[in-house]
Amino acid sequence: MKIDGTAYRSIWVDPDDGWSVRIFDQTRLPWAVAVLRLTSVAEAMHAIASMQVRGAPLIGAVAAYGVCLAVRADASTEAMERDCAALAATRPTAVNLRWAIGRMLTRLRNTVPAERVAAAYEEAGRIADEDVAQCEAIGRHGVGLIAEIAARTTRRVNVLTHCNAGWLATVDWGTALAPIYMACERGIDLHVWVDETRPRNQGAALTAWELGSHGVPHRVIADNAGGHLMQHGEVDLVIVGTDRVACNGDVANKIGTYLKALAAHDNGVPFWVALPGTTIDWTVAEGRDIPIEERSPAEVTDITGRTADGRIETVRVTPSGAANPAFDVTPARLVTGLITERGRCAASAEGLLSLFPERR
Ligand code: MRU
Known about the structure:
Strand order of the largest sheet: 8-7-6-9-12-16-17
CATH topology of the largest domain: Rossmann fold
Bound molecules: 5-S-methyl-1-O-phosphono-5-thio-D-ribulose
Shape: globular
CATH architecture of the largest domain: 3-Layer(aba) Sandwich
Number of helices: 11
């Protein structure tokens, strides 16, 4: 997707040295567009844990390149297994992390140490390219939902999204935002309500920034505003991403997603979840088995922003301590359907298996 007219991916290998890994530091957006250079598996682990990179598919891609950096430093089987286990422990909820590391290990365990570096970069490149293709396909399968609403109304289509499931959360296109970008390309008159997404404000900081950079009309709303807007007919459709889908169609996503699904259900607003197949956890039967990350209370008690004179400052907003569950599970019964790279389906075991019959 574009920043000021130039297309970028969210992760790439530095063309000058051919091995170090470039990412945008998402902790500095929207105030600064800073590109970081990752040169070791420790830096890749820090990038994931500190949320310099975040979003399920991008976490997977960074982990894959983290494995490249690990075997570049030490290609022995012992070191590779140790580093992969450490990478897999950086964040618990997004299943793409473990999926990508598992895929890298499957390839590298079958490769002699002397050939592991080349094989690792090839496999990580494939993971990144496939993610782009999957997200583009999600866009193609999802844009019809927006087009159908546009065809029945003379006013603009209002889509609500939560957190950031755009190109910054994937390698390109995004999941929830891919249909939105494609609708814009088709000239559909649409507007996006962007949930601010406390505590880390991925909506206010990242989704608003990437939609603005690409020229998509949008406004940020307080997390509590969505229900009111739905009651007043101001939301035609909700599309969110997910960090892990259970076999029964339950979806884990950024904290607050469940409340939006409840409000959408109460108001008859379609609630769709967009995901690549890599986000389905075929080992987890139900959403309650998905591990929910508990992050630092400081993310709730403190807020970072830009002062009027341009300084970036962090201030305390609560007098006491806080709890910070970072994800919640939306039960499948509240999900209108899933948008995947293979098409749309019901949020159910049957729905998922109809698109992924090889998992039967
Ligand atoms: O904690 P984050 O910012 O990594 O959480 C991200 C989300 O919850 C996204 O909605 C999800 O990963 C889908 S991203 C395509």
